[in-house]
Every structure is written in structure tokens, then in C-alpha cells.
Fold this sequence. Notes:
The protein is α/β, with parallel strands linked by helices. It has helices at residues 18-32, 68-76, 86-99, 113-124, 131-135, 138-149, 158-166, 187-192, 211-231, 246-249, 267-272, 289-296, 305-308, 325-337, 339-356, 359-375, 377-383, 385-409; strands at 2-8, 35-41, 58-61, 80-84, 104-108, 152-155, 175-177, 200-205, 237-240, 258-262, 274-279, 301-303, 319-321.
Amino acid sequence: MKKALFIGHVWPEPSTTAAGHRMLQLLEVFQKFGYHITFASTAQKTEYSLDLENMGITSVDILLNHSSFDVFAAELSPDVVIFDRFMVEEQFGWRVAEFVPRAIRILNTEDLHGLRKAREEAYLKQETFYLDLWKTHPVTLREVASIYRSDISLMISSYELSILREKLGIPNELLLHLPFMVENISKEEILKWPKFKDRRDFVVVGNGRHAPNIDSIKILKAKIWPLIRKELPDAQIHVYGAYLPQQIMEMHRPNQGFLVKGWAEDMGTILKNTRVVLAPLQFGAGIKGKLLDAMQFGTPSVTTPIGAEGMHGNLPWNGTICRDWESFAQAAISLYQNPVQWKEARADGVVLVNTLFNKDSLQSRLLQAMDGVHQNLEEHRNKNFIGRLLQHHTLTSSKYLAKWIEAKNT
């Protein structure tokens, strides 16, 4: 049986983060492809961590800067290694290259961390963001080096794929657009969705450990919700998310219709009965799992250009995209009150899901890319001269730094 080794930045948490849900999708895909999967991580498990053993996946605790990984990798001898984010590739990529040289090395980016950091820093300084800030950011330099060292990098956002190609000239053969992979929405499923009149209230969803989510909840509370509540005095907004900090929990104001709920085990049922999802995101990267979830349950959304980025191509959004908070509030009020507009937005969401996030076609895209690299691995790597150069210098520098750290800790 073919073997795949996933090296996780954290243990997957599909019920708390979009990244965790993305990882679950990848695990399921590789199982479908016939791989026996080993998932390894240096992180600590939490109460929300996925039960990998229940899925038939072997889980292994590994150490940073320790030669025990070399023995483990060589004995496992995987056919493919998936690094969960560039930091993991930095830590373990050189070891995989040395001890399992024939394994295909795949980088799961989740999002461009350098883009997210550059945007956040510009936002906090109240400066205009432009792409040169991303191109020159130290995290971008590390991240792009990781992309070059990998055989394939999975890009979740079409926008991020385009700027890597167009602004940095990264070769097409190193990048694969692979957004979230979900089942098509059938006509039968649509008929089962609660209708406009049977839904109520607004929802915002966001993991509390993600800075853009905390900022968006603060904006909702201070600037958007008062405008909505003035027009819709009986409406409520429900705030969901794991790891919400104390400052957010203290925003709970039932008399203002602002209800902080925290983590919910079954967001699907909640979204199915919600009329409108709100996501006033000001910075960040990647694509937003919560907005795709809303589409999957027939719930229109109001968001920002950052929120919708890389998610809809040339197709209409399933709701409204706004750049200022007064327009945002008015769009939310309009969607909430207008059943014709709401139904059209819901239909747009169905088209988006079935066109851009189709599970079968995306799985085929991944399998085809992997087969192509596997059949021509030496040629693929020889064409990637920058990757070979970076691999050489990384192997030299990281290897001896890691050995020094290991010796120092002995």
C-alpha cells in the first residue's frame, strides 16, 4: 500500500478552524487515493483535536531538532510527504529531502502567511496596504523559499495563486489551485433548506485565536450592529467561535441583541436556520471557510473584499460585498428584509459551490498533478533550479544548526 506522511503544524481541529477542516479534507482525499496515512506533529493535542485513530490514521508525536525523526522517516519510507504550512517545511523539509529523497514533497499553504502579516501590520499602523509590502516582508521571503523547495504547493486562494505567478514569477508547475473540496448541492437538498420566512437573526463565526476574526467582531459591535439594530430592533446577532478571548465574551449584551455564544458543536444546523451571515474582515489571507459553510447551508452573507477574496472568480457573490460600514449595515438590513433578493443571493451561493468547489473535479486535479510529478520526479526537480539551489543551502545551514541544537540539548 502507498504511504503518505502528514507533518502537522498542529493536530487538526475541523470543528474549530477552517484550516482544521481543510486538513480533514486532505486526509480523506489521500485515503480515497489508497494511501495509508501517518500524521505526525510536535504540537500538543487539545479537546477539539480530530480522532485520527478512529479514521484509521496512525498518529505520531515527533520532536523538533532531533535525529529521531530521521530514523522514523527512513523506516516509514513514505511515497509522499505533506507539510502543513511553510514553517513545518522549514523544520522538517531538509530531513525529508535527505532521508526520503524519492518522496514527493507537498506544501499545504493554507494561506499566504506573509500576505496576512503584511496586511495586518499595515492595518494596525493605519497605512494603505500595497503588494510591495507583501513582496518585501520577511515572512514572504521564507514562505516563497519553502514553495520553491517543494514539488507542489497547494494554493487555496485563486488570488494568491495569481500574485505568486504574476508578481513573483513562480512557475506554474510548482503551484496547484486546490480550494476547499465539498459535495455539490443538489436540488433535493435545496428543497429541504428552511425558507426565508422560517429563518431569523444574524450570525458571525470566527476562531478567537485568529486576529482578523477578533477585529471583525469588535467592528460589528461598535460600528455595524448599532446601525442594523436601529432598523431591526427585534433582530439578534449570534457570535460563535472556539477560543474567544475574555474581551469578546464580555461583549455579550442580550438587551442589545448581541449574543456571544462561543464554540458550537453543530454549526450546520445553526447556519441552516440563520437568515444572514456577517463577516466584516479588514485583513487576512486565504479563503474563508465560514463563508463557504454559509453557502452550503443556503445562507447569504455580507462581507468585505478581503472576505470574498479568491472565492468567487467572475461569479456573483451570494449576498453583498461592501467597503464601508454604513453600506455594510444597509446591505445586511436589505438582505434580511427582502425575500426576493435573499433568494437570488442563495441561488448565487449554490452556483459558486457547485462550480468552484466541486469535490470530484478538485480531487482529480490533485491526483493528476501528483501522478505527473511522480512519473517525472527527476525532470521536475531539475527544471526547478532555484528550488535545488535553496534545498542545497537549506540542507547545509538547517542541518548543522539542528545538529548543534540537538547536541546542546543532550
